[in-house]
Amino acid sequence: MILNKLNIFLIVVFITSCQIKGEKKDFLINEKDLIPEGIAVDKRTNIIYLSSTYKRKIIQINPDGKVSDFIPQEEDNLWSVLGMEVDETNGILWANTGMALS
Fold first, then answer.
1. Which domain CATH number covers 60?
2. What pLDDT does 101 receive?
3. Residue 86: what pLDDT?
4. Are 52 and 60 within 8 A, CB to CB?
5. Is there a domain that residue 15 lies in?
6. Residue 43 lies in a domain
């Protein structure tokens, strides 16, 4: 079967769920093409960090559900973020990022 014209409309909505201090919360992130990869939670501040491989950025979700850029797209030559971890002792978010060379 051959299709001459194919229009696909795709709405992608990411819902992340996290349990903080015994309370489960769901957060809605409706950013197109985010493609999330890594997630980390700062237990001191209850902030959730979510990384994007495609947009090359890290977003943060505050306990009240506000979503904002922690590191904006491609800032400081950031590449795809594959994983993260919060160092709560030193207040540092460690991010694993990489670039493929051809």
1. 2.40.10.500
2. 61
3. 94
4. no
5. no
6. yes
**DSSP 8-state symbol, 62:** -
pTM exceeds 0.85: no
Check if the beta carbon of residue 31 is closer than 8 Å to that of residue 16: no
Separation of CA 96 from chain center:
13
Cα–Cα distance measured from residue 68 to residue 75, given in angstroms and rounded to the nearest whole number: 14
Domain that holds residue 45: 36-98
10 inside domain: no
Tokens, residue 12: 């992608």
Place of tokens 């491989």: 53
Distance CA 20, CA 43 (A): 8
Instruction: Say how many C-beta atoms besides its own lie within 10 A of residue 8's C-beta.
Output: 4
- CA angle in degrees (0–180, nearest 5) for 78-42-16: 75
- 48 located within any domain: yes
pLDDT profile of the chain (102 residues), mean per 10: 40 48 69 83 90 90 89 84 90 83 58
Number of domains in the chain: 1
